[in-house]
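Newbie here. two chains, one complex. Structure please?
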Amino acid sequence: MIRFDNVTKVYPRSTRPALSDVNVNVERGEFVFVVGPSGSGKSTLLRLALREEKATSGSVLVAGHDLSTLSARKVPRFRRGIGAVFQDFRLLPGKTVDQNVAFALQVIGKPASAIRQLVPETLEMVGLEGKGKRLPHQLSGGEQQRVAIARAVVNKPQILLCDEPTGNLDPKISLDIVHLLDRINRAGTTVVMATHDADTVNDMRRRVVQLDDGVVVRDEENATYLAPEGDK
Amino acid sequence: MKVGFVAGEVWSGLRRNLSMALSVILVTMVSMFLLGMGLLAQRQADTMKGYWYDRIQVSIYLCTENSLQANCQGRAATEAQQESIENQLKAMPEVKQVFHESEAEAFERFKEQFRNSPITGNVQPGDIPQSFRVQLADPTKFAVVTSQFERAPGVASVQDQEKVLKRFFQIINWITAFSVFLAGLMVICATLLMATTIRQAAFIRRREIGIMRLVGASNWTIRMPFIIEMLVVAMLGVGLAVGMLWLGLRLIFNLGFNRVVLDKALIGANDVWALTPWLFGGVILIAVLTSLFTLRRYLRV
């Protein structure tokens, strides 16, 4: 489903590669944690998978697309099959919860009838039934992240990429969010979650890909993660 | 892409960036007004040219006994000379109409024109020379007539009214050029202001744009609200400019000038309407191109 072959990424005006010679293969339906300290290349890995960046060398295959040759014109259509969630939620402050989720469907031209059905359905799935009329600032951090997750999955993507989704949340709320992602995963969506939060990783016992200085130093099933001191 | 959704985005975009939208409207209005004025002035000049040129005559005055011109050598034109000139004129393809004004007719006309002036008393028949009044098929070809008859035997002088009008049209041309030049500057202004406005609007909506790109909205979906916004404000500006041109024409020209005399020589609302599609077309083109160019940076995937 997601396949990195000998991928190296060097950002312009940087001498040190953000990722160097990374090989990772994520199968359909997997749940993978990408862990490592800040600056280890987790976000770069996700940005490459989302085609927000292009690999300097090596090939990135996502959902059947070779991203190194995918033309810019075809990027939007590719992204419709991928959901993405971020640490900072990225909700639109002027729109209600309903509108925020509906926005993702409106801008890709979904018919209004489908939107009317999908939005409440998805909000119920993430546990926000009855909060559709609220504005983001009237919600807690955990609830806001649920809205962001609802928006990411409302179009039923094959893959959900999460970049530190619990980075701004309390440990208890973080676990709730990861359990929600787990439920989405069990429904068939491939989930890749970058985090440096050891508790959530250890709670889940899923596959862990550990990065350090842009290099994959560990790739294990049912693994735990011991965050380095000072990086929690 | 649903029409209602785009309309909503456009409306909220305009509301959030109202002062910029207003300035684009005003600058577009002023630039298009100036351009329209320049073009209307040119049309006015053209209309007047047509009007006057139809009436322009070349007058060939024949010698009298009192003529001082060297060509006359102190002798009145003979009948043979007069006939020869008339035949030559009639044979010229450039000439539409020739009529001969005898000394007696010239005297009558003079008395009629200056009937309230004491000068009439001193003028005798014969003081005003006989002449040929020549109407040209193409008024710009007056030089042909002038050159052929200036030194012809029996011709005292060739006068052509074109020279007088030329100065007048020269002035109108300068006014037009200046007004179009100002309009050009204003159009540059309007274009830059549109670019700035779009950049600001895109900045205000950077979150929306970011999310649209994230969820895979097409580039046209992202661009459309901006382009429509620009079109709305730019077209409001042109609309106002056209309204002002029409109003200005009515108030200043058609009511202020002497209608009876110059009616056919003046431009009217029709000329404004003829200009309107070009003004709109030009502004639409500028708005769309500016939007596309300015948004490139925000759409790079």
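Moderator note: Residues 162-204 of chain B form the longest helix (43 residues). Residues 57-160 of chain B form a domain with the Alpha-Beta Plaits fold (CATH 3.30.70.3040). Thread marked as resolved.
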